[in-house]
Specification:
This protein is mainly alpha-helical. Helix content is about 55%, strand content about 0%. The chain is built from 5 helices and no strands.
């Protein structure tokens, strides 16, 4: 009989934050185990694919403010990436030019 599916949604934001901080899957699996959540590498990897999460993910969670600010600046100005990043950061929105 297969094990019941583990719902990782309650740990999504923290998992995405850890991935953005370049934690390895092994480190995150260890953290989850400490939280009482035991999940296989394959299940974890499948969930990361479903969430579209990788080290290249620009932000954790669903905060769309930086994306909207960059898109707005990109479409209405001729500023460089650095200028857009500087202006957005000056507005109190955390971003990078990458």
């Amino acid at each position: 009989m297969p094990r019941p599916r583990v719902d990782l949604d309650p740990w999504r934001d923290e998992t995405e934050r850890r991935i953005a901080q370049k934690h390895t899957h092994r480190q995150i699996l260890g953290w989850l185990a400490g939280e009482g959540v035991i999940v296989s590498k394959n299940t974890f990897s499948s969930q990361m694919v479903a969430w579209d999460v990788s080290r290249r993910t620009r932000m954790a969670g669903t905060n769309a403010m930086p994306i909207e600010a960059v898109e707005r600046a990109f479409h209405i100005t001729n500023h460089s990436d650095q200028m857009i990043a500087d202006n957005i950061t000056a507005q109190g929105i955390s971003t990078t030019r990458d």
